[in-house]
Amino acid sequence: MKGTKRAARFALPIALSLGVAMTALTPAIAKDLLTVDLVNEPSSLDPHQQWNPDSYYVYRNIFDNMVTRDDAGEIVPQIATAWQRTSDTETVFTIRDDVTFHDGTPLTPEDVVYTVERITDPDFGSPQLGQFNKIIKAEVTGENQVTLTTDGAYPALLAQLVKLSIVPRHIASTMTSAEFNEAPVGSGPYIFDSWDRGVSVTVTKNEDYWGDIGPFETVVFRGVPDAATRVADLQAGAADLVVTLNTDLAQQVENGGQGKVLTVNTERVAYFAMNSALAPLDQPDLRKAISHAIDREAIVDGLLGGYPQIVDQMLSPAHFGWADGIEGYDYDPEKAQELIAGLETAPDMELGLATSPVFDQRVVQAIQQMLTDVGLNVAIDTTDMATWLKDQQTTPEQAPMLTFSRWSCACQDPDGIMYPLLHSSSNWSRVSDPEIDALLDEARSELDETRRADLYAQINRMALEDADILPLYQAAIIYGAAENLDWQPTSNESLFLNRMSWTE
């Protein structure tokens, strides 16, 4: 990395209101109630409409998925107990016969087929469509047996099915997605109880769960946007688990004598998107200048305590396909200024930088300052997470000019991050490159793992060449937890309640 670390200038003071602790809710009762402070309330509890962290944390416990990952990251059975690829395009799954939905109705292979057809229906409008649209047919092909057919070979099928939540056909087919969101019914270890809008979502233990029964009778998920407030809740005993802390607040937990810090490097990649469909960002040299202007080392080491790892590709080391030796843009503000000075169209206009409170605003503000330092006019545009998601899932012509974001598909496969962010057909993508599109299509159909990994390395190098998108770092997620909460976070950021327990 070129340049001098400038982390100190971006450090922000921690402001903690004493009144927060004084007004905190009654501490949770061990063994009965677990209280979790999220950043925001879920944007949707329909598992086919969102997979942002705050939604996923909640609904992943209400629903079972086709398959799942164990704590070591290996794909293991859930609703499907076994599977066999019978050809390049067909995989046969054996479906459990001992699962009931929360209303007492048995889960059947027909529910699995309906689930696949629902999420792959373009008219349904799932933001996850790009993750599953290689599946072109789902059919019951025997007792407790479902066959999925893909449009060509699809090596990422199992990795994607890790996040396919099975919904009951007899309920979901009679409702709109908005109605199902209000009263979601799944087969998971916890049952939806209530949603106090703007405050909390409550779930209760499923005593009839086929798998490991959850240890908590009741779990309350609260939206608490201010991270300092989440820490205050933890230290006051009003919360047992709090998510998305920064390093300063983690240190405060460690020094406070109340609670502990849990952390893991995730599959989530932080990135900076530059909308090349809009002037002046349609100039590759401006995107390259922005890439040189952002001091990732200062962000990672100075602001984030060295927890994350800088990456130069749209993958993390937790993904299949991670390639050593790919080098991105060094921090070089002088080079950035030279590129800006040589532009055909001067970037005199204000560039909007879209963000939401769920993201670390210290990082957003640091990036704004770095771009200002090389002569750009950048204004931060902060919206709530639901609005931010809506603004991102649109055409490039309507999307924000600049975006700081972090992406996880909960699948640990490059198809789950690179296809939605780089393929021109995706409503998340700000990239339009026919050659990259073709290589992404080829990679998601390549069964030879070595060849497939080489394709993704080639795509990442091409994306860097034109500065289509700037990878920043592999995100580390930091949780604060009650001392007697036993839980090991995982790279895919799944908050499985039935893998937690209280210790004496």
From TrEMBL:
One matching Pfam family: SBP_bac_5
Keyword DNA repair in annotation: no
GO molecular function: peptide transmembrane transporter activity
Residues annotated as domain Solute-binding protein family: 74-427
Protein location: Periplasm
Gene Ontology biological process terms from the UniProt entry: peptide transport
Main location: periplasm
Lineage: superkingdom: Bacteria
GO cellular component, one term: outer membrane-bounded periplasmic space
Keywords: Signal, Transport
Record has Ribonucleoprotein as a keyword: no
Signal peptide (UniProt feature, chain positions): 1-30
Gene3D superfamilies referenced in this protein's UniProt entry, alphabetically: Dipeptide-binding Protein, Domain 1, Dipeptide-binding Protein, Domain 3, Periplasmic binding protein-like II
Family under the similarity heading: Belongs to the bacterial solute-binding protein 5 family.
Protein name, per record: ABC transporter substrate-binding protein
